[in-house]
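Hi P.,

Sorry for the delay on this. The queue was packed all week, but I finally got your sequence through. Input first:
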Amino acid sequence: VHLVESGGGLVQPGGSLRLSCAASGFTFSRYSISWHRQAPGKERELVAVIPSAGGSTYYADSVKGRFTISRDNAKNTVYLQMNSLKPEDTAVYYCNVRYPSYGASRRDYWGQGTQVTVSS
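Then the structure:
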């Protein structure tokens, strides 16, 4: 299982970024994928989740209405469109999958993260 995030950078308040998470090593279309973030000195927090098929996406209250999670199963990629960015969105953003679906070996897999900095 391998996850690679990209798309981070420096953006002014009110700006937008689109993060990508490219996945490999598992049957991507069968798994929910989530985005998390960790700001300096804070615990990692869940930002958004997209299910494998059907169902509803989930957003943390702090990003609801500003961020949109989506997936392209043909490209094994999940996206996080971030609009109206605020300084408090500054963090390292990680994507996550829990694999396999069940069993004793099930565990969290993380990418290396991508830095998002919102500052004027």
